[in-house]
Model the fold of this input.
Amino acid sequence: MRGPVRSARGGDPYLGRAADRRPAPARGSARLRRRGAALRRCVVSFTYYTVDTGIETSQVFWSFDAVADHVELCDAETTLPVFLAALPKNESILDAGCGLARWVIFLRTRGYRVVGTDRAYSALAAARREADVPLFTADTMRLPIRDAALGAVISLGVVEHDPAGPVAALREIRRVLRPGGIALVAVPYNNPFRRALINHLRRLRDWQKRRAGLKLVFGEYRFTAAELTTFLHTAGFEVESIHVDDFTPPLGKGLWVDSSSFFGYRIGPIEIAPGHKRWELNRRARVIQRAANAISPWLVAGGVLAVARRVD
Done:
């Protein structure tokens, strides 16, 4: 089933501030230039912090995950129909920041010409042991690809990790796309449930950690749909549609992340605290998911996906 869709110009129906309900300005307009100056400072709805462990997160993030399990999850993505409809089959596609290369493996079995790149060599090595697919190590901010070489770029959960904001990474994606090329960009969604409750609990938890002497460092930004749309416009894209990025029930991205942050989760066979396996919602979260989805899946969505096109 196709995930919920709305026009990019319709904005985010659950924005907390009236200013964010305005349609994104046209590329090149005076309003966009003014908003672009502010966005270069990356003023967004919510900044997520994590405890500084002294270890590069990208090199250990995938250590507990099996490639086959990740590939299997592609069938449970609400965005799968969007991918299959938007991606060209007769052109080269790059998954920039592919992690364990699940989409590379999944889409290549369906005839798409996808290549993957990531800065985490260990993740790419694990993927190559699972499937013979084209992968290479690179920084997504400096892709070793010539200008206008690709028909599409996939960027899922990547651009939100730059403290300076996502525009530089989005411009690099635009550089390697041909004119009119497609970008599928997904970022964590600052959904209404998070804005009403989770963000306040997170700030309280961060304060407690600092009081305990722990050092917190930047983890990621979480965006509203309007913020993502404006960043893409600033980088030279026209946003064609916006979609919920989550799993189909009984799995869940947003609720799993939010629930596990406070109630615990399992890593491999070791149960850290009463909770649930990766992406498997416990009974409490499933009740919340059903109630929220009956109103709108945007209420608890874990991410927001934009289908954008390079404009010149």
